[in-house]
Structure formats: C-alpha cells, structure tokens
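Supplementary Methods, section 5.1.

A reviewer requested that the exact input to the structure prediction be made available. We therefore reproduce it here, unchanged from the version used in the analyses.
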Amino acid sequence: MNCGMRNAECGVPQASRSDRQRGGGIHSALRTPRSAFGFTLLEVLVALAIFALAAVVMGATYINVLVAYEAATRRIDYWEDLKFVRSALLTEPDRVKAEMGDELDLGDNRRARWSAEIAPTETTDVFAVTWTCEITDPKRNAPQKTSQQFRLLRPTWSDPVERSQLRENARQRILELQAKASK
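The structure derived from this sequence is encoded token-by-token as follows.
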C-alpha cells in the first residue's frame, strides 16, 4: 500500500518502539490482552441467575395459561349445559309440568335440576318466565345456580278463557287509541 505519504498519514497504525524492539511489529499492537479471552466466575453466576429467573417466569406463565384454558373450557361446558337444560323448558307443552320443572342427567356424573315460575302478561299467549337451574358437578365444590328471566310465546300454556279476555282487552285498547287519533 503506497499512497505517497508516510504510513501514519495513510491511516495505517504504527507500531510503538517497544513493539518493534520485541519484534511484534504492527500486528502486536492489534492483539488483545490474554486475560480478556474467558469469563470470570462472577459473570457466569450472574448469567446463570438471569437464566434461572427467566425460566421460572416462563414456567409460571405457562402454568397460568394452562389454568386459564381449563377454566375457559369449563365455562363453555357450563353454558352448553344451560342451553340444553333450558331447551327442556322451551319444548314443554304443558304449563303445569313446566312450572314443576325436571331433573336431567348431563353425563359425567353431572345433574341439572330446573324449575320455572310462569306468569301471564297482557299480551295474548306471551308469558313472563323466571327460570332457575342448579347444576351439580363432582369436579366442583358447590353446585352452580343460575336464574334467568325472559318472555316466552307459548300458545299451549294459555287458558282459553284468559286468552279470549286478553284479546278483548287488546281490541278495546285499539278502539280507544283510534278514537283519540281521530279527534
């Protein structure tokens, strides 16, 4: 490499006088000291402690994910059981039997007991239902209880006399509203 200048001006490092005397030349100036090639015991212990802490955190996180997954699966199973038991009420054509409720086997030693309070509304064939359900599962300490309120259109539950009275009341309200609107 000949740039027309001295080596120091070309950017080539110059060996010190002591390096030249030892015979090292330029290359010995670039060498690292011998003590920098290994790790000290303290560095190894710190790295090991950081690794152990990360492993513990990752293990705890993994366990939490598994527990959350199991809880979500149980919750989905519970809602599926509720839908199944509620369908027993929705398909019951007899009002008296629907109010008494029933007990169902859900499999895996799980049992469901349900009942309903049924009240007529001012609308023909529509009933206000308060449905209660209790599911016992041997995997749980206590039974799970649920209560839901909803309205249900069920012509088979209506009493013919009450139905005709409700229709007459609705007809009277319509006539009153029409009379007010025509004024």
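The beta strands are 102-107, 110-120, 126-136, 144-153. These observations are discussed further in the main text.
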